[in-house]
Design goal:
- The chain has 78 residues and is mainly α.
- The chain contains four helices and no strands.
- Helix 2 packs across helix 3.
- The radius of gyration is 17 Å and the shape is elongated.
- The two termini are 31 Å apart.
Length: 78
């Protein structure tokens, strides 16, 4: 499920009936929110604002991959 779908699901759970309503709760214009949604281009601060507007917590986590070598080749170069 991508971020757009997750937002839509949470809107339903939170009783937010439209994108216009969510945009208003976030303090954004409908056009601004629509552009962000269309591109799925959200900053962390955008997601925090959406979570607050939907009265939920935003949780982002890194989960270790199982079965991968811990060697240097898997680490990002600096």
């Amino acid at each position: 499920m991508d971020i757009k779908q997750k937002i839509k699901v949470q809107m339903i759970k939170s009783g937010v009936k439209s994108d216009t309503e969510l945009a208003s709760r976030c303090g954004w214009s409908k056009a601004n929110y629509s552009n962000k949604l269309q591109r799925a281009n959200f900053k962390l601060s955008d997601l925090e604002t959406i979570a607050e507007a939907l009265r939920c917590d935003l949780v982002i986590e890194f989960v270790e991959r199982k079965g991968e070598d811990d060697g240097e080749e898997n680490r990002p170069s600096r």
